[in-house]
Amino acid sequence: MSDKGLLEQLNRTTETLSHSLTNLIRYSSISRERDDDEHETYDVPESIAKTSTAGLMMVNAQTAQLVRGIQDLMVMTRGIREKWLLTQIPDEKTDSQQDLDLEKCARLLEQWEKEVLGKN
Amino acid sequence: MPQPEFIQERLKSLDSIDDLLLSTLLHASQAVGTMEELKRGNDNMKPQFENHTRSFYSSLEQATVALRHEIKHLDDSVGTRLLPINVNKKATGQDNDKLRDQFEVLGRELNDDGGR
Question: Is A112 in CB contact (< 8 Å) with chain B?
Fold first, then answer.
């Protein structure tokens, strides 16, 4: 359920992260990359300004993606921490002090029955 | 509140995952920085660029694997150590405290009665 969601998110984020550095580097060399880009054809000759602006935007986007991916993973570790701390089943051993009191409590209750209720 | 050992271990490993994630980001920035140098024609930065890129991917890999382990631990512990659902438990142990309190009062009362 929720863990499956976590795994999926982890997979997705890691994939994006591993691509984003590659993309970052590719887009930062966009002017050279265009030369040996086979599958895209540019009919209109583009101005240098346009190319560099597009490259800059891509670089920014990829950097943001990189940072956001890391952020997402850190949010995930925080979520896991919260899960460990907030939904843990309380350890019964810490209440073992209570067991020691039980006999005394039984005696007290019996005494109370005798003294207050007047039972014998 | 002191946590059980297992949970402390988990928290520690989550901390190290955070460190790994941050170093991933650091390596990325270093890689981009060296690439900038490369673009300026500084060819002897190439091995450094390679190193940084390599460490980016290796720390990303380590962080992912560790996080996967953590999720598995989380998955395994649901039902034994963790509650499967989110509940608001604000005053755990208050009932026991109250019980102890009441028994103390009872003991005092009875002792007083016995004294009379």
Answer: yes
